[in-house]
Amino acid sequence: MQDLTQGSIPKHVVRMAAPIMIGMLFQTLYFLIDLYFVARLGDAAIAGVGAAGNVQFIVMALTQILGVGTMALISHAVGRKDREDANLVFNQSLLLALTCTAVTLVGGYALGGAYMRTLGADAATTQAGIDYLYWFLPGLALQFAQIAMGSALRGTGIAKPTMVVQMLTVVLNAILAPVLIAGWLTGKPMGVAGAGLATSISVAAGVVMMALYFARLEKYVGFDPSQFHARLAVWKRILHIGLPPGGEFALMFVYMAVIYWVIRGFGAEAQAGFGIGQRVMQAIFLPAMAVAFATAPVAGQNVGARRPERVRATFQAAVAIGTVLMLGLTALCQWRPDWLVGAFTQETTVIAVAVQFLSIISLNFVASGLIFTCSGMFQALGNTLPAFLSSASRLLTFVVPAVWLSSQPGFELRQLWLVSVASVTLQAILSAVLLLRALRRATVTMTAAAPA
């Protein structure tokens, strides 16, 4: 356990963010490695894998419910030096993870085909998406256990073990991808199905490694069979904090699905270009997301310790660090976006769509970084509903205009990306206003409850 209620706030944020960013980078490499080999199979394969991979937002929504609730409650418990409650939350989160794993497998195999038939630009794209999704689902389902264990460690101020496990699983995925997708050594290529299988095997290996770490090395929280029966009061505490962030990721799924649906008339090349641009953007967002992920436990422990001045200082440090990082990445995307997408395809039309997407969408990188940081702060406060409400605002500011524009003569992809930039900027302003209001209220509460 690392005590984050003492010492330099910026140092704590950077110390936590560095391994988180490295781990998230390797996590993103899962998809980039798959995309690299899948791109060799054609535009239909790229578009199918991109659309099927969007299902991950639904799973991420569920993992956010579990992960955010677990991290916040454990960080609060660590801040007030309540190890017993931290251990109880950890074991109940594992029980919830098993439940979510079963729901994901059943729901994914039952509804995956219908989902792809709705979004696929043509029959080849639809079939590629189904093949990938069915082999990818076990890996998605196993992420719940991995997230529960990683979130528990993050709540106690520890991030390096999760980073190491993610690095090792990506190395395994990199080895398996060419073997299973292209048939290296075996001579039996599985195509897009191999991409899904490679990821599922790698995630399973990561879960085993995390379990071994907790069984042999972790001392503050650990497996306790006596707590492996449902305690609805603890589940309610986890869900109270976790449901709104889960809703945020569910809304991301909606936004991505709307984009795929709106641009389907431009063909598989447009969907493939957007798929590549979206994956690259996810990788670009890693620094800001890592800062936000680090902000939550640092501020969360200080919330538990009733240190409002350190909570505010955490937000200020995170905004400063995140803004500098995102300004640099914005400059890169404005300068040479073609460098970022050229490695995945040589198709001129696909590259043009991806380059245009990154050139325009990078204008909201700083705003996106602020949104991530505000979300992390809301998690630390244990009041995540405002973050969900700000994300839901894009139903009005993005989805409605996007659907309307798609029905107009002369509709262009460029118009869609500009609407997205405007909607994210408005969301950032709303998030900041809501957070400052929440911080003022939390300061009053923490000051009143602090010991003399």
3D structure, described in words:
The chain is an all-alpha fold and 452 residues long. The chain has one domain. The protein is built from 17 helices and no strands. The chain is globular. The two termini are 26 Å apart.
In short, what is this structure?
The chain has 452 residues and is mainly α.
Query: How many runs of DSSP E, i.e. beta strands?
Result: 0
Tell me the overall shape.
globular
Radius of gyration over all CA atoms, rounded: 21 Å
Major beta-sheet overview: none
Distance between the termini: 26 Å
Low-pLDDT residue intervals, each spanning 5 or more residues: none
- Going by helix content, strand content and strand pairing, the class is mainly alpha
Strand content: under 5%
